[in-house]
Amino acid sequence: MKVGLLFGSFNPIHIGHLILANFMATNTDLNVVWLVVSPQNPFKPSNTLLHEFDRLQMVTLAIEDNLNLGVSNIEFSMPRPSYTIDTLTYLQEKYPSYEFVLIMGEDNLPLFPKWKNSERILEYHRVYVYPRSGSITTELPDMPNVTFVKAPVLDISATFIRQCVKQEKSTKYMLPDAVAEYIKVHKLYQ
């Protein structure tokens, strides 16, 4: 079983995340893509995040009818902030017969060498890199485990969606209906 891992704050999950995850699950050699909800990203301030259980619930609602996608809360019980190498190590121990592939945006490549144990990630795991709008392509020299995937580029951000919600502007077609309803009912991002 080859599992792609798309880590994110998903604050909130939107169609850009979903299109990318589904594309990776159906247009590469991955069997499934798990969306890993990160409770705290070491590179982002945590005071802007909704509670992780709200974000997990929105991801669950967004993917409930797609068998190509799964959701993981694996980092909820791990030390914070979350480090990708620790999560990958834990998942590999928990699921020894699975092959885990890290999915990351091209915009993360310049920061990748600063990630905790980035060299170990590349040594033990494949990394699929997708294009991001405005990114400058940065090849990782002599890294055979890195594959660039020509996935669709969608310039939609969770920050923009949060601003729309706060300003009571439409988010139609940017969010799955179930996620938009969850945000409305729970009065999130207001």
Account of the protein in words:
- The chain has helices spanning 15-27, 52-63, 84-94, 118-124, 158-166, 177-185, and strands at residues 2-8, 32-37, 69-72, 99-105, 126-130, 146-148.
- Strand 1, helix 1 and strand 2 form a beta-alpha-beta unit.
- Strands 3-2-1-4-5-6 form a 6-stranded parallel sheet, sandwiched between helices.
- The longest helix has 13 residues, at 15-27.
- It is globular.
- With 190 residues, it is of the alpha/beta class.
- It has a single domain (2-155), classed as HUPs (Rossmann fold), CATH 3.40.50.620.
- Helix content is 32%, strand content 17%.
- The model has no long low-confidence stretch (mean pLDDT 92).
- The protein starts with a strand and ends in a 5-residue tail after the last helix.
- Catalyzes the reversible adenylation of nicotinate mononucleotide (NaMN) to nicotinic acid adenine dinucleotide (NaAD).
- GO terms for molecular function: nucleotidyltransferase activity.
- Belongs to the NadD family.
